Amino acid sequence: MRVRALVLSDTHIARGGRLALPQAVLDAAVSADVVVHAGDLVGADVLETLSQLAPVHAVLGNNDHELVGRLPTSVEFDLGGVPIAVVHDSGPTEGRPSRMARMFPTAGLVVYGHSHQPFDGPGVNGQWLLNPGSPTQRRRAPTHTFAWIEAGGGQPLQTRLVHLGP
Predict the structure, then answer these.
(1) Which of 70, 85, 116, 156 could anchor a disulfide with 134, C-beta 3.0 to 4.6 Å?
(2) Tell me, what CATH number does 122's domain have?
(3) Of 107, 111, 16, which Cα lies nearest the Cα of 59?
(4) How many domains does the chain have?
(5) Domain range for residue 11?
């Protein structure tokens, strides 16, 4: 069976703040089998909203003060037969592929965030790296983004970035 995961990071939505999850993200969560969030949710409201739509694997980001003790700093799980690792801050761009392979040697895919810069590409030793960017704060990225992972069903892992626009 093929499994679809919605992948988010850096939503930065505080309780009572001006930002909200875009409708496209909420619609995607409804159709996802699971949601993966690579940290900086900022408020528990985001976690609760997503959890009502699909099971969530989330990690603690550097701005997730309200979620300390509720979320781990990294998580590893299986998605459709593919070992997945999730961490918020993967460190500097230089050396990232080797660093992720050392940190998560058994992961076929490492999801990370922090930079708000989307990335979908190869790591080392056959590992794949995915940063979904941010659907709410693009910073230096050209567009707001999130990502999809599809795994299982006897087919290779597929990842895809979704651009929401500026």
Answers:
(1) 116
(2) 3.60.21.10
(3) 111
(4) 1
(5) 2-165
